[in-house]
Design goal:
heterodimer, A: four-stranded mixed sheet, B: four-stranded mixed sheet, 25 helices
């Protein structure tokens, strides 16, 4: 028998004896909705998200602040480009990286030397960049997250290797919760998913030394989200 | 189980000696209390943001019940979907099979340098030892794991590996091992590790990760982390190997909308962990980067033995958040290293006897006050403290101890003879007059109790005596 058959046979043998249902023990009686699964059931219990787009925008801004994400609502691509230029001079950037996308390129106007990762790149060259510009699949109000994929948002390394990650998004990309983000991914890609889908929730962090929060453990020290109309 | 278990003292003596040492170490206890106090505050804050944490627990328990009780079906679906996208699934019945599968991948691809992100399953199969003795350089990239790797220690806690160390100790360690300047700033220490690891990330040709969840319906693994090291481990090297225990399955991708926030809240007191990443294969056509090869190591290693015990099957619902460790009075006093196991705390005490032998590891189930704090803390409602009791019962039924049987036979005889019971009370009162002469000394028959506690005095008159006197 090979490994697969061995393990499956063991599982089938083990499962011949039925286990007591979780509702049959423990201190809490089963809640009404616990028998139905899926997003609607989850929304009963998870942290609430406001009903209107403005509520969601306010919640996203509040979560960003708690996470130490810089969240900037911009009136136009030009305003976003100006904001990016200000960060660049404040942090003395020498080189930035990005991927080809009209949204990203609309805020990159003032940067002369951009490493575009689309056609392949040297790891060392990307590592030497001061910032990485990407789009995202969506933003999630409930958690203050941005979802990036390896297909449409510049691959795997661009959003995590440079020390400052700049996400350029539009208002219509702001979704209420994680369930909505999964629904978007399912409907957009069908079965043909990108090889990586990553929810980014704030700049990289660690608490491994005395449980004290330090930003920029291995990934970006700064995360900026520029929200266009 | 392996060579490591047959060396040194038996696990129960090692546990007793280490527990005795740690419980007397007030500095250690203070350190752990301080590290956890911030966690309690943040955990409660984030729990209170849920509309109902209890409702979410019920639902999470329900979903894991569904996953684990149809594990064969879900695993087959998981494997066929992820393989259809170019990943290779290795079904490994035991630790040896997993180690040799990973070594074979490294050999066939002429791997030189290996970078790892956090994986308790890789600790379970002693992967680093196997890779290092085969001549590979292996680097732990998670900061806490890197620190304990430099100290040649096992992780202290399954989520916070280096929580037993102070910044001073870590600074000394970095000074000695990396030649860095001394500092008392956690930020500077983190940056030292970041610089060292950046180089390793860029050089490594194989990245090894764990897996927090395996999604059956879409064939994906999900990795939760804060530092970004798992993102880099899975982005830069040309080969990605993910090790996953077979119980990590959830049926649907949408289930993660519940599990990701719960894992973050229970595990680290966060609303959501910084990076929650799904992997659905190696680099796909049209993608700019990512590994050429993606291997998933599916590990049984006696999980099916636990599955075969319907009474304790829910222990396989565990999402390794560590919440039960953080509230356990035993863990906080004896410390993570005393357990001598990969998985510490209440969940470790429950599952280790199944994974590594009941008689050798039953002592962990005895080391509990049965307060039930673990069961209350568990986000997927594992009935932890009852499982500790069941392990005690099963161990006694499987291999009764003659002195325990004798003691209980004597107790039964005494309790069934009222005259004898009354006599023993009288003798007890007589005996306790002389007890101070031997109190706590090796001659004391009650020494197990009196060496660290005082013995309560028998009442001058028993209830029965009082009742008799009153009735007259």
């Amino acid at each position: 028998m090979n490994g697969r058959e061995t393990i499956l046979a063991r599982i089938r043998e083990a499962l011949k004896a039925p286990a007591p249902h979780p509702a049959s023990h423990g201190a809490h009686a089963p809640h009404g909705a616990a028998s139905e699964h899926g997003p609607d059931a989850f929304r009963h219990w998870l942290p609430p998200v406001g009903d209107s787009p403005d509520d969601r925008l306010a919640l996203f801004a509040k979560n960003s602040e708690a996470l130490k994400t810089t969240f900037v609502v911009c009136e136009s691509p030009a305003a976003a480009a100006a904001h990016a230029t200000r960060i660049a001079s404040a942090e003395a950037w020498k080189k930035v990286a990005a991927h080809r996308s009209p949204l990203v390129e609309s805020v990159l106007g003032d940067f002369p030397d951009v490493l575009f990762t689309d056609g392949g790149f040297e790891t060392a060259a990307l590592e030497a960049c001061d910032a990485g510009f990407t789009t995202c699949e969506c933003l999630v109000a409930q958690t203050g997250s941005a979802l990036v994929s390896s297909r449409d948002n510049g691959g795997r390394a661009l959003s995590v290797l440079p020390p400052h990650h700049i996400i350029v998004a539009t208002r219509s990309q702001l979704l209420p919760d994680l369930s909505a983000a999964f629904e978007l991914v399912e409907s957009k890609y069908g079965g043909n998913f990108p090889s990586m889908l990553s929810f980014i929730t704030g700049p990289s962090r660690t608490g491994d030394i005395e449980r004290i929060l330090v930003l920029g453990a291995h990934g970006p020290k700064n995360l900026t989200i520029l929200l266009l109309p | 189980m392996s060579a490591t278990a047959s060396q040194g003292p038996p696990p129960s003596s090692a546990f007793r000696a280490s527990a005795r040492r740690f419980t007397r170490d007030l500095r250690h206890r203070g350190l752990i209390q301080k590290a956890l106090s911030g966690y309690y505050t943040k955990r409660d804050e984030n729990k209170s943001r849920f509309q109902s944490w209890q409702g979410a627990r019920d639902l999470a328990a329900e979903i894991k019940f569904e996953a684990v009780n149809h594990l064969d079906r879900h695993l087959e679906e998981f494997a066929s979907r992820i393989e259809s996208r170019g990943a290779k699934v290795h079904w490994c019945p035991d630790a040896e099979a997993a180690r040799s599968a990973i070594l074979a991948i490294a050999r066939e691809n002429n791997v030189r340098s290996i970078i790892k992100s956090k994986s308790m399953t890789s600790e379970e199969i002693h992967l680093n030892d196997a890779l290092e003795s085969a001549g590979y350089g292996v680097f732990e990239s998670d900061l806490g794991e890197y620190i304990v790797q430099l100290r040649h220690e096992a992780p202290y806690h399954l989520v916070f590996p280096a929580m037993h160390l102070t910044r001073g100790e870590i600074s000394d360690l970095f000074q000695k091992e990396l030649g860095s300047e001394p500092t008392d700033s956690p930020e500077e220490l983190t940056m030292i590790a970041r610089r060292v690891m950046r180089k390793k990330f860029c050089e490594a040709d194989m990245g090894i990760s764990g897996a927090n969840f395996g999604v059956a319906s879409t064939g994906m693994i999900s990795i939760t982390e804060n530092e970004g090291n798992a993102r880099l481990t899975t982005a830069l090297p040309r080969i990605h190997v993910a090790i996953m225990g077979i119980e990590k399955i959830v049926p649907r991708m949408s289930d993660l909308a519940l599990f990701l926030p719960m894992l973050a809240t229970a595990g680290a007191g966060q609303a959501l962990t910084c990076y929650n990443t799904l992997f659905a294969g190696p680099r796909q056509p049209g993608e700019t980067d990512g590994p050429e090869q993606f291997h998933v190591i599916l590990l049984d290693n006696r999980r099916t033995a636990l599955l075969a015990d319907p009474e304790q099957r829910d222990a396989l619902h565990c999402i390794r958040c560590g919440a039960c460790l953080n509230v356990c009075p035993i863990f906080k006093n004896v410390g993570g290293h005393s357990y001598g196991t990969t998985y510490q705390g209440p969940i470790g005490s429950v599952i280790t006897p199944h994974l590594r032998g009941l008689q050798s590891w039953k002592h962990l189930s005895g080391a509990s006050s049965l307060c039930g704090a673990c069961t209350e803390a568990c986000p997927v409602k594992i009935d932890l403290h009852h499982h500790l009791l069941q392990n005690r019962r099963n161990a006694a039924a499987q291999k009764p101890l003659w002195y325990e049987r004798l003691a209980f036979a004597g107790f039964q005889f005494l309790m069934r003879n009222p005259a004898l019971y009354a006599l023993s009370l009288k003798l007890g009162r007589l005996g306790q007059i002389f007890h101070p002469l031997v109190n706590g000394s090796p001659l004391d028959p009650a020494r197990a109790w009196t060496s660290s506690r005082s013995l309560p005095k028998l009442a001058p008159r028993s209830f029965r005596e009082k009742w008799k006197a009153r009735a007259k």
